[in-house]
Amino acid sequence: MLILNCPYCGVDAEETELAAGGEAHLKRFGPGSSDDDFHDYLFMRENPKGVHLERWRHSNGCGKWFHAARCTQTLEVFGTYPAQTTEPPQEIKDNIAAKRPGWAWREFS
Amino acid sequence: MSESISALNHASYDGIAKIEEIGLQGMITLRGDLSDKVLAKAVKDATGQKMPAQREALVNGDTGACWMSTDELLVLVPYAEVEAKLAAMTSALSGTHALAVNVSDARAVFRISGGNARVVLGKLSPVDLAPEAFQPGQIRRSRLAQVAGAFWMDDAETFRVVCFRSAADYVFKLLKVAAQPGSEVGIY
């Protein structure tokens, strides 16, 4: 059972109260972008065994989208943070580094 | 004008806790910047309550203000006054980026009362309802089995539950099953 703390309403919400929203921090390539960039934006997703950054929605709650950093292998949660950001905050990166030294995920480490 | 009735028209059930559909309740969804003084004054004028803090429910009978999310409040007013209160609120907020909508007839309200009220709701919702964790004055938006719902406590043994009107029958049946005689769990 995955339990994530919603950064907006502050409750520890369990999985059935949440809706998964796929990978976090995608950069959109829309009209005018190259075919390769558009293809990668549409289809190429990380599928790590380990640290992963994801979007979640507190759908049976405050309804807000937020980000979560967790381990896909152990379900350990490193932290959650608001969605109004393009990269994980330093505090989250530090939390991950403390538990998974040398971690890297896309351009973040 | 036709007479308004609530979804289940005061249906009730007596089990290990008393379940009642409590009829019509005026409800206004208010969205905007909750730190805005104009918004706070509109809430104060409509309900007499201050702006609720995170997950706070400031409710007195059928009047009150509940925190729904970082930019949303549920404003409770008596059903008969909802149009007047909404008009006053809308005009008070005319210069502000905010939205107030009457949702009274889109919702159903239940009361769960009795010593086993926490048990009954705890069977349906993934929320820690232990007395240390959930108290009068708090509101929680969550789910009741398969539908969304919000609830707060009027006193130590009474919950008020709000759900969508279209799910009222489902929620009433859920609560009835959860309150069946002999189904006490004895954890709270």
Key traits:
heterodimer, A: 109 residues, alpha+beta, Folate-binding fold, two-stranded antiparallel ribbon, 6 strands, B: 188 residues, Gyrase A, domain 2, six-stranded antiparallel sheet, five-stranded antiparallel sheet, globular
Total number of domains of chain B: 1
What overall form of chain B do the CA principal axes indicate?
globular
Tell the overall outline of chain A: globular
Q: Give the uncertain stretches of chain B in residue-range form.
A: none
- Most extensive protein-chain contact, per-chain counts: A-B, 13 and 12 residues
Q: What oligomeric assembly is this protein in? A: heterodimer
Helix coverage percent of residues of chain A? 10-25%
Q: What is the beta-strand fraction of chain B?
A: 25-35%
What does this structure look like?
The complex is a heterodimer of chains A (109) and B (188). Chain A has 109 residues and is α+β, with helices and mostly antiparallel strands. Chain A has a single domain (3-99), classed as Folate-binding superfamily (Folate-binding fold, 2-Layer Sandwich). Helix content of chain A is 17%, strand content 28%. Chain A is built from 2 helices and 6 strands; from the N terminus they run E-E-E-H-E-E-E-H. Chain A is globular, with a radius of gyration of 14 Å. Chain B is an alpha+beta fold. Chain B has 4 helices and 11 strands. Chain B has helices spanning 37-47, 82-92, 117-122, 168-178; strands at 12-14, 18-21, 26-31, 57-60, 63-69, 72-77, 99-102, 107-113, 139-144, 147-155, 158-164. Chain B has a 6-stranded antiparallel beta sheet with strand order 1-2-8-11-10-9. In chain B, strand 9 and strand 10 form a beta hairpin. Chain B starts with 11 loop residues before the first strand and ends in a 10-residue tail after the last helix. The model of chain B has no long low-confidence stretch (mean pLDDT 96). The interface between A and B is medium-sized, with 13 and 12 residues.
